[in-house]
Specification:
The chain is mainly alpha-helical. It has two domains: about 130 residues, no CATH class; about 100 residues, no CATH class. It is built from twelve helices and no strands. The protein is extended. The chain starts with a helix and ends in a 6-residue tail after the last helix. The model has no long low-confidence stretch (mean pLDDT about 90). Bound molecules: zinc ion (ZN) (2 copies). The site of one zinc ion has 8 residues, from helix 2 and helix 10. One zinc ion binds next to helix 8.
């Protein structure tokens, strides 16, 4: 029996951009939707979010774009967090150690580290955990990549064709796939397919540059018009859809 993620991968291959970037983005969005709609009153999730000070920068702002009910969900989650942070600040206010004169002088000359007066609170303001959405995305990405490379390793023609018809894996996801797989067949297929796609993309960039030459401007642009964006996407991963 095929794992559930198998069809999600072949479906994502039929869409533009790196299929793994698309699946990763969908995982994050599903997680954020679930947090807003189901987990607002789930004490373990709230505690975990308090420890990590909510989400990383892009995912915190993505959370605010989740849709209906977002304002109330965010208000619940962040009220908790502000409460925890305020307590830290109040404790720090009451417990400021006063360093010796010599230590003060040394600290004045060296700003690469916090002073002994602020070091404890500086440490406490570092999130205790990584972003929950990033953690969920990374776990699911591993699962998807294992399903993908296991299928390629078995010479699964459907998966191979789906990947061939897709825009291919971006370099970060290719690197992850190569690190996870234990199949030489999968490695060979991934390297061959990606090389072919990157060569085709280079040819499109050359065509874009050629047509930007004033002598050939009259020719008009074809499918290479957005190849510069696809090149960035291939090297670093797809941009978040607006
Ligand atoms: Zn990717
Ligand atoms: Zn994150």
């Amino acid at each position: 029996m095929l794992p559930l993620s198998y069809h999600e991968i072949t479906d994502a291959c039929a869409q533009p951009g790196c299929p793994l970037c698309r699946l990763a983005e969908r995982t994050v969005q599903r997680h954020l939707d679930r947090v807003i709609y189901d987990s607002v009153n789930d004490p373990p999730t709230r505690a975990r979010l308090r420890e990590s000070f909510g989400y990383c920068y892009p995912h915190a702002w993505q959370l605010t774009q989740t849709g209906d009910g977002t304002a109330v969900g965010v208000a619940f989650i962040y009220r908790d967090m502000l409460n925890a942070i305020t307590k830290l600040l109040q404790t720090a206010q009451g417990e400021r150690p006063s360093p010796s004169l010599l230590a003060r002088l040394r600290e004045k000359l060296n700003r690469t580290r916090p002073s002994s007066a602020t070091e404890p609170i500086v440490q406490q303001l570092v999130p205790g955990y990584n972003c929950l959405a990033c953690a969920e995305r990374d776990k699911m990405t591993d699962l998807f990549l294992i399903t993908l490379t296991d299928a390629l390793g078995k010479g699964d023609a459907v998966m191979e064709q789906a990947l061939r018809d897709s825009d291919g894996l971006c370099v970060p996801h290719l690197r992850q796939a190569l690190a996870l797989t234990r199949s030489e067949t999968a490695v060979a297929t991934l390297l061959t397919l990606t090389t072919t796609k990157l060569l085709a993309l280079q040819a499109e960039l050359s065509e874009l540059l050629r047509k930007n030459d004033y002598r050939f401007r009259g020719e008009g642009f074809g499918s290479e018009a957005d190849s510069w964006l696809r090149a960035v996407s291939a090297v670093i991963g797809a941009a978040r859809p607006e």
